[in-house]
Design goal:
With 446 residues, this protein is of the alpha/beta class. It is built from 13 helices and ten strands. The strands form two sheets. It has an eight-stranded parallel β-sheet. Strands 1-2 form a two-stranded antiparallel ribbon. A hairpin with a 6-residue loop joins β1 and β2. It is globular. The protein starts with a helix and ends with a helix.
């Protein structure tokens, strides 16, 4: 059957593969027509993504190596199971283009929630900075809070005004790339960047990414809210503002570990994060996407996973028994115990938390991608657990927005990769996302 199917696919390869330079049909590693079909599709997608890789090189003037040294290749995948797709255990452990604990504060809290004072000291709840006070707290709030804010290590980065001017909410920034979030729904500072949205959506050449970063670097805040999950790769830029070693915790329905081109794309941003010297580890929780399993995992960053700098915790309840032994596999009944052990292992270290709304189940979020399996209560609980560490920054993205692209190659590959979902009503989508956001944001930023 595989041989017959390969003969059938050869004319299709000529019609589709030749214009995109697909070199050869890719037979499955260990039998099964389904594997052959899936790998054929992936082979086509790799070739299509080569168009974007070419775009990277054509539009990039930084002299970088692009993705040349990251790709495992078509015929030389780094680790192909020798025993078939269901035997990914033991040695095989080694988005791509392919009731919760009370989290605390809300926007209505008064300014006393920002400064937690005894008779003699005050502290910034976000960064832990403190100094001895020669004044009563109410005098500081009315008169000398500028001295506190100027001394806060985050002040040079935030630049959003005094804490008491934000209603007690930690300083944050809404970067409006695509109107995924309502600019006037909350009391926050909004930076209009909609002119960048079509150029950055899904993927962008390195030159465009760096131009965008240079334009907005001095306006970033430790906590950000920004567009659709198509822009999630920008989290690797947000991490540049931190100098001390940290762990990145990502709550996402996709592992975003793909090593294929383009270099800057929503399906591979974890690899950009791991290139930063301050990022010690990335831990992704809540993946329900096919990319975590054979054959999709062949294009993931398995090297980083084996090295222990990348953890991918994928839902395994509905997987075959052999695959349930995969490193990092989680189950509905026990995932909270696993997560609690993970947090304990962080030993109070610095953490950056990024939440893609597509990690939430249908009904809790409307996104441009498939929904995950976390409930809002699940994510609120996880964020509450992470408060035992030092959350130095974080972001929320992933709300639905209409897709607009600046380049035909970008549009072509993005539409090929996105799931076919019905077009939602924008106002209803924003209402659903607003409800989940209002539950999660105070816990993340308090």
């Amino acid at each position: 059957m595989p041989d017959a199917l390969e003969l059938f696919l050869q004319p299709l390869q000529f019609l589709i593969g030749e214009p995109f330079d697909i070199d050869e049909v890719i037979p499955g590693a260990a039998g099964g027509a389904d594997e052959l079909v899936e790998l054929e599709v992936d082979g086509f997608r790799v070739a299509v993504l080569g168009v974007l890789n070419q775009e990277d090189h054509q539009e990039c003037d930084d002299g970088g190596a692009g993705v040349d040294n990251e790709l495992p290749g078509i015929g030389v995948v780094e680790e192909v199971p020798g025993e078939g797709p269901d035997d990914d255990d033991g040695d095989g452990e080694d988005k791509g283009p392919g009731g919760a604990e009370d989290g605390g504060g809300s926007a209505g809290e008064d300014a006393e929630s920002v400064l937690d004072a005894t008779d003699e000291a005050a502290f910034c709840e976000r960064c832990g900075f403190g100094f001895r006070l020669p004044f009563r707290l109410d005098v500081v709030l009315m008169f000398d809070v500028r001295m506190w804010f100027a001394a806060c290590p985050y002040a040079p980065v935030v630049g959003l005004g005094l804490p008491c001017e934000t209603g007690g909410v930690p300083a944050a920034l809404h970067l409006n790339l695509d109107e995924a979030w309502e600019s006037d729904a909350w009391e926050w500072t909004t930076v209009e960047a909609r002119e960048w949205g079509p150029r950055l959506r899904f993927s962008a050449p390195p030159r465009v990414v760096e131009d965008f970063y240079r334009t907005h670097a001095d306006r970033l805040a430790p906590f950000l809210v920004y567009g659709s999950g198509d822009f999630h790769y920008l989290s690797a830029l947000w991490l540049r503002q931190f100098a001390e070693p940290l762990t990145v915790v990502s709550l996402d329905n996709h592992p975003d570990w793909d090593v294929r081109p383009p270099r800057w794309a929503c399906g591979g941003w974890v690899n950009r994060a791991l290139e930063l010297p301050q990022v010690q580890k990335v831990s992704v929780w809540g993946c329900g996407n096919f990319e975590c399993w054979w054959p999709g995992q062949a294009f993931g960053n398995r090297r980083a996973e084996r090295a222990g700098t990348l953890e991918v915790h994928a839902w395994a309840d509905d997987r075959p028994l052999a695959q349930q032994q995969r490193r990092g596999a989680i189950f509905r009944g026990t995932w909270r115990e696993d997560f609690a052990r993970f947090v304990a292992g962080l030993e109070g270290g610095d953490v950056y938390v990024t939440v893609d709304m597509d990690c939430l189940e249908a009904g809790a979020a409307v996104t441009n991608w498939e929904n995950g399996r976390f409930s809002t209560d699940d994510v609120a609980w996880a964020l509450g657990k992470l408060r035992a560490t030092r959350i130095v920054g974080g972001d929320i993205c992933g709300a639905y927005s209409p897709q607009k692209y600046a380049r035909w190659k970008q549009r072509f590959v993005a539409r090929l990769d996105h799931p076919r979902l019905p077009e939602p009503n924008l106002a209803q989508a924003q209402a659903v996302n607003r409800a989940s956001f209002e539950r999660l944001w105070p816990i993340l930023t308090s």
